[in-house]
């Protein structure tokens, strides 16, 4: 992570590398192209989370959905975000542990802001925040507006005058999941056996329920929530899919899938347990879409072979840039080399 220097605490203690104090003169180092991300608590602690929540509420006022991933540090970080949002006047509804794409779906479905406290595929010790506007679009350059406001909202109002800290997780979380299952249930049914390896991450419960809802027989691997991803990396790589491949062959599966820590990145193996490169998955999805002349968006790090089979529009690497390119091209499918 980029380093930063804290300009001294209110108590006059020495500067702490890597963290900018709310209201301090140093620019925070944890704002990135399409998310907030840093080490907890050296870069992002509860006070920074609260200030971040207030800055978000001041920049994007209105009802806000808040979820988080399975990391032990994500819950206290999310609580700080929630308090800041409430102090800033945004009503908050908790979603609990959810995969990031479900937050995007819910934001668009209910036309509200959506936030997910997650460090995604980063190592343990990191926390982060991804956001979505009321259309479900990921917040990208919008974070610059939050960064400029961060730490400039003054002292917290008295707790007695602060807005409610929001509704419990269960009612809204249940409502969102049921709506999502109804939505995917409108699509085609799935036959066969699918082996899924969510690695104990945020997708662990929902991906199993969703696939069973549309007809698949599901064999889960590490399908319970785990704060340390069962000692595994939250970032799946093509080189660590041997177990998934063996289980697909053992259960005579149609294919296998493994997810990253927050469930927005997936890698596949075929029925023989062999890794399927992302561009091949994208081509299969692209060919299922109506209108063969549609554009397939691909980041610049994806194999040039793609141009032999589809009309491709290239973009910079990164979720923000891929999504922006999809919107410009009105594309239904996009691919990065990482997923």
TrEMBL record:
InterPro entries: A-D-PHexomutase_a/b/a-I, A-D-PHexomutase_a/b/a-I/II/III, A-D-PHexomutase_a/b/a-II, Alpha-D-phosphohexomutase_SF. Residues 1-10 have a biased composition (Gly residues). GO terms for molecular function: intramolecular phosphotransferase activity; metal ion binding. GO terms for biological process: carbohydrate metabolic process. The keyword Metal-binding applies. Residues 11-28, 159-172 have a biased composition (Low complexity). Keywords: Isomerase, Magnesium, Metal-binding, Phosphoprotein. Its cofactor is Mg(2+). Residues 1-28, 149-172 are annotated as: Disordered. The keyword ATP-binding does not apply. Residues 149-158 have a biased composition (Basic and acidic residues). Belongs to the phosphohexose mutase family. This is Phosphoglucomutase/phosphomannomutase alpha/beta/alpha domain protein. It comes from mine drainage metagenome. The lineage of its organism: unclassified sequences, metagenomes, ecological metagenomes.
